[in-house]
């Protein structure tokens, strides 16, 4: 994947029905769904004849018939897009229609559908009581509903339904925008961001997609590089050329030429530019044209998406700055101890591998937060940064230390911790520096409490330090140092076995030895180092 800091263009494309799109066919708007509920077939026939040719805002009617309240309830459980119900009061019981109204509003919690009660026996349910006691929109006798009055009733009901639906969609859409933007702020990679955007747009507009592509351009003339794909576009993620999907290339070119791309059928598109110069085109082909409210919500969401991307990029820059600081500090320590230059890199790799292994074990799972897992490897390279305060005569001594020299050498744990604690105090929360500080201070503690500098024991020793303690000794024994030759791997394994439970956390030793036994080490063990 391209680096987040490259000034490239990113294109997010959501496409559906490629064949339909290639033909340029206009997609009809969905019909208004009207449910006719009556136990008399003749009423169904007459109602259909009277309203079948009605169009409202360019949308026809879809007429659905139910011959009892129970049958209507089944339809309403399956269909959430019913706009209007023409409902008979007396069917399988004298109050079947009224009971269905209560079920719709209370059990189904459907407050949007418009309900017009019709009755052939007006004395059975007095009009005033029904209108007051039940959440309905009109109450008519069947003899009063002439074709013209039925037309007026249907149009008025659809207009009311449309207004209520717009309010509800606006409420849901704004809630989705707030929730979606919050989710996007938590993402930490371009791939996660692209996938998150497409998920949130799908939820916001309730529009399915036949396939989705996320591509990135390195230049205006270059062919976009596919970063992610779904549905019919999955072959692109497997290496298929974009030329196999000319509609996608056409969409990219059109958006590039148009800049601030307008909404236009059969494709809906939104263009936005992040503060760091990255350009996005969100392009989708919904099952039917988006309403103005949906376009407005999509525009608001894309503004939030741009801000979230800027936050993602800023977070990446801050992490990169922290990593650069960590590498610089580690390089400073290595400069004075050049024989162990590769040691810290192997410690970083092996700490990451052990953490992945420990995530499978219940005893450690709760301690391995996502932040800890992300940072432990990089933070581990700071474990010996305190050696900058150790005199060269001791640091490079080829023979064993005297007791006085060992006391001086052991000071490096406290020196490193103080350096890193001072730096980490300027960064809120867990950072490479704060995690590195606890590693630097405690990676020479022993599991039985006989280590230094604080004599901590067991789980009182931070998990980060317990991991580095094992890894540091494992790699040091396998490596050539001024005062020793490398040990054979079998002897190193025996050493760890013998000291598991005394010097080292036995669970971490077991995890490391599993990596060795199963050939899952992050670097080769062969040869002297």
What is shown here, in short?
Residues 1-26 and 260-266 have low confidence and may be disordered. 51% of the residues lie in helices and 11% in strands.
Number of helices: 19
Task: Give the low-confidence spans.
Answer: 1-26, 260-266
Extended strand count: 10
Strand content: 5-15%
CATH superfamily of the largest domain: Hypothetical protein af1432
H and E string:
EHEHEHEHEHEHHEEHHEEHHHHHHHHHH
Rg calc: 35 Å
Structure overview:
This protein folds into 3 domains: 9-16 and 177-313, 2-Layer Sandwich (Beta-Lactamase); 32-145, Response regulator (Rossmann fold), CATH 3.40.50; 337-517, Hypothetical protein af1432, CATH 1.10.3210.10. The two termini are 33 Å apart. A hairpin with a 5-residue loop joins strand 9 and strand 10 (279-284). The longest helix is centred in the middle third of the chain and has 45 residues, at 292-336. The chain has helices at 18-23, 41-51, 69-78, 96-107, 127-133, 147-186, 190-205, 234-237, 246-258, 292-336, 343-358, 362-365, 370-380, 392-395, 403-424, 432-442, 463-478, 489-499, 506-517; strands at 9-15, 32-37, 61-66, 82-88, 114-119, 138-141, 211-217, 225-229, 268-273, 279-284. Helix 16 (432-442) crosses helix 17 (463-478). It is built from 19 helices and 10 strands. Helices cover 51% and strands 11% of the residues.
């Amino acid at each position: 994947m391209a680096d987040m800091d490259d000034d490239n263009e990113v294109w997010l494309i959501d496409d559906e029905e490629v064949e339909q799109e290639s033909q340029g066919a206009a997609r009809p708007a969905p019909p208004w769904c009207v449910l006719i509920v009556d136990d008399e077939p003749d009423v169904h026939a007459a109602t259909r004849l009277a309203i079948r040719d009605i169009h409202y805002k360019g949308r026809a009617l879809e007429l659905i018939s139910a011959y009892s309240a129970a049958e209507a309830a089944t339809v309403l459980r399956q269909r959430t897009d019913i706009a209007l119900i023409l409902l008979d009061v007396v069917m399988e019981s004298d109050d079947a229609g009224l009971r269905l109204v209560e079920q719709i509003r209370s059990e189904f919690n459907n407050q949007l559908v418009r309900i017009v009660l019709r009755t052939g026996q007006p004395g059975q349910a007095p009009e005033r009581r029904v209108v007051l006691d039940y959440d309905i929109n009109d109450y008519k006798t069947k003899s009063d509903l002439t074709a013209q009055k039925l037309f007026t009733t249907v149009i008025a009901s659809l207009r009311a339904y449309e207004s209520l639906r717009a309010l509800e969609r606006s409420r849901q859409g704004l809630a989705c925008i707030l929730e979606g933007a919050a989710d996007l702020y938590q993402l930490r990679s371009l791939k996660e961001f692209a996938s998150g955007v497409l998920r949130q747009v799908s939820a916001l507009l309730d529009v399915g997609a036949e396939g989705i592509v996320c591509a990135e351009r390195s230049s205006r003339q270059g062919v976009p590089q596919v970063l992610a794909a779904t549905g019919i576009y999955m072959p692109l993620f497997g290496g298929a050329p974009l030329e196999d999907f000319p509609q996608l290339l056409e969409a990219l070119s059109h958006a590039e030429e148009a800049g601030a791309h307008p909404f236009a059928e059969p494709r809906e598109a939104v263009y936005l530019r992040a503060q760091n110069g990255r350009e996005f085109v969100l392009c989708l082909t919904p099952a039917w044209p988006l309403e103005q409210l949906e376009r407005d919500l999509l525009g608001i969401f894309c503004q939030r998406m741009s801000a979230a991307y800027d936050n993602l990029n800023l977070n990446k820059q801050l992490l990169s700055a922290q990593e650069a600081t960590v590498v610089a500090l580690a390089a400073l320590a290595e400069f004075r101890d050049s024989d162990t230059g590769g040691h810290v890199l192997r410690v970083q790799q092996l700490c990451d591998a052990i953490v992945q292994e420990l995530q499978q074990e219940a005893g450690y799972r709760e301690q391995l937060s996502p932040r800890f897992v992300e940072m432990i490897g990089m933070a581990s390279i700071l474990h010996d940064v305190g050696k900058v305060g150790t005199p060269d005569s001791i640091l490079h001594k080829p023979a064993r230390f005297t007791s006085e020299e060992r006391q001086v050498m052991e000071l490096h744990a406290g020196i490193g911790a103080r350096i890193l604690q001072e730096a980490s105090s300027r960064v809120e929360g867990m950072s490479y520096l704060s995690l590195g500080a606890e590693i630097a201070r405690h990676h020479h503690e022993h599991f039985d409490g006989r280590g230094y500098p604080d004599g901590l024991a067991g789980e009182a020793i931070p998990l980060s330090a317990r991991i580095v303690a094992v890894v540091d000794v494992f790699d040091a024994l396998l490596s050539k140092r001024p005062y020793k030759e490398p040990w054979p791997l079998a002897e190193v394994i025996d050493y760890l076995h013998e000291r598991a439970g005394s010097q080292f956390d036995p669970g971490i030793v077991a995890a490391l030895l599993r990596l060795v036994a199963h050939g899952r080490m992050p670097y080769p063990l062969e040869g002297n180092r």
